[in-house]
Amino acid sequence: MSSLSKPELLALTPKRFLAEGYRDARGVVRGELATLWAAAAVEQLRAAGVKAAELGPLVDRLLAATRSAAATWAVSGRAELDAVAREAKGGPSEWLDACVARVRQAEDLPGLKLHAGAVLRLLALGEAATGARLPDA
Known about the structure:
The protein is mainly alpha-helical. It has one domain. The protein has 7 helices and no strands. The radius of gyration is 14 Å and the shape is globular.
């Protein structure tokens, strides 16, 4: 998926890759959120010892919060996203804090959803490929 080395992926943090936001100059969600940047996030989460079973429920809450935030953005803005970010402990907290902090308006929510879902899928696929036990469905 990536031609970057592991050290390069570890250095490609959300603060760095989201510096210009979730959308390009035309307002289109950046495709790298689901590819290269998701791979970088997975490397960072793995380095922190995060497993899909830990990240899954957090991403589920985040996705639910994005749906709610989209409906109430004019009133409460990022309040629900910030609440989910505060819940994160340990390895996922830095990644999630950086991702939520970069949401500036409701139009950024699809990019956050795309990235979070891609990160969880890649993390789970990596665990499956290495024989790690996945959570029961």
